[in-house]
Amino acid sequence: MSENFAIIGGDLRIIKLAKMLADEGNMVYTFGLEKAEELKEHKNIVFTEKLSKAIPEDVEVVIGPIPFSSNGININAPFSNEEISVRELIHYLNAKILIAGSIMPEVYSMANDEYVEIIDIMKREELAVLNTISTAEGAIEIAIANTNKIIHGSKVLILGFGRIGKVLARKLAGLSAKVTCAARKDEDLAWIKAYGHNETNINTLGENLGDFDIIINTVPHLILNKERLQYVKDDCLLIDLASNPGGIDKKTVKERNLKLIWALALPRKSSTSYNSRIYKRYNL
Questions:
Q1: Can you spell out the DSSP letters for 115-165?
Q2: CA–CA separation, 88 vs 73, rounded Å?
């Protein structure tokens, strides 16, 4: 049975999701996706000029971006010509369901006032795992495309040993890279050893940064500051997987003319297909 959905803002993942939902016969109302050319010829996708028009009464489920907002003021809408206020969106969601990702706590307070039910899909473990796999593979693809060296035998440092760090380290080791993982907690350092990788404490990073051909950050806090970046080799490839503001001092990178790839929103296809399945699971 076809349903009506509203999709507000979002990146390429949301564009792919909108097309999937429309291909399945659902009617999709959009706002904040006017730059998404691939959606404009689809008969089941409606582009609206006002936010209020994108959320008609017969729509129960509204889909927002991942992450929902980077600044707490406007939702993430890179395919929009204008900014979309978080507060304004929540106001128009009166008594509806909002599905998005990485939603800030203050948004929940706004939602309570408007009787909005929130589903943050980034809190679901199965999605986090799918995101981790595709993020790790995307990071490896970036590394291969942006270095003159082969991965085999390259010295790679991974900052952080959370979900992404664990999967990324294993995949790189499978390509015969010499992997070192940096963490703070003794528990994480022990697990790094248990997995067979080299370990180092983030707090002691310094001159040892000059040993690495590739450094990949997964920590959403500043790790490679100006002081530490002075030790990084001129030809080292830096890849930052962390969300805004990232974990690498971009000003210093530019001053030193280092090569940095800030790889945001890598998990596109896998997270999109998962989103489609989660709507069906909830009968939304």
A1: T-EEEEGGGSHHHHHHHHHHHHHHHHHHHHHT-SS-STT-EEEEE--SHHH
A2: 10
Q: Which amino acid is at 111?
A: A
Dihedral sign (CA 78, 84, 85, 87):
negative
Strand order in the sheet with 214-217: 198-201, 178-183, 155-159, 214-217, 237-240, 259-262
Q: Find all residues with CB under 8 Å of 145, minimum gap 6, and list them.
A: none
CA distances from 7 to 121, 124, 234 (A): 15, 20, 44
**Segments of 17-154 assigned E as strands:** 27-31, 45-47, 61-63, 97-100, 117-120
- Please check whether residue 46 is in contact with residue 35, taking contact to mean a CB–CB distance below 8 angstroms: no
Q: How far apart are CA 214 and CA 160, in angstroms?
A: 14
Residue ranges and CATH numbers for the domains of the chain are 4-123 (3.40.50.720), 127-262 (3.40.50.720)
pTM over 0.85: no
Q: Which of 141, 57, 124, 128 is nearest to 93 (CA)?
A: 57
Encoding tokens for residue 48?
A: 């609206």
- Enumerate residues 6+ apart whose C-beta is below 8 A from 250: 260, 262
Residues 137, 143, 146, 148, Cα dihedral to 10°: -130
Residues 243/263, Cβ–Cβ less than 8 Å: no
Question: What tens digit of pLDDT does each residue of 32-71 get?
Answer: 999 999 999 899 999 999 999 999 999 999 999 988 998 8
